[in-house]
C-alpha cells in the first residue's frame, strides 16, 4: 500500500506541474498545440517536469473573432 500511495503522490505532483505549465502558457496568451507525453521532460530523481517542443505554439489574438459574431 505504501508504494501505491507514493506513486500517487508523484503522479499528483507531475500532473500539477503540467497544469501549471499550461496555465503559464495561457496566461501569456500562447497555446502549445502539441502537448503529448513525448514533449514532457521528467527528472525522475527530483520529480520535476518541463514542457518542451513549442514549435507549434501560436499567440492568441486579443479577441476571438468567433466570440464577437452573433448567430
TrEMBL record:
Its EC number is 2.7.11.1. It comes from the Eukaryota. The keyword Zinc-finger does not apply. It catalyses: L-seryl-[protein] + ATP = O-phospho-L-seryl-[protein] + ADP + H(+); L-threonyl-[protein] + ATP = O-phospho-L-threonyl-[protein] + ADP + H(+). Gene3D superfamilies: Transferase(Phosphotransferase) domain 1. It is an enzyme of class 2 (transferase). InterPro entries: Kinase-like_dom_sf, Prot_kinase_dom, Ser/Thr_kinase_AS. Residues 1-71 form the Protein kinase domain. Residues 1-16 form the signal peptide. Keywords: ATP-binding, Kinase, Nucleotide-binding, Serine/threonine-protein kinase, Signal, Transferase. This is non-specific serine/threonine protein kinase. The lineage of its organism: Eukaryota, Viridiplantae, Streptophyta, Embryophyta, Tracheophyta.
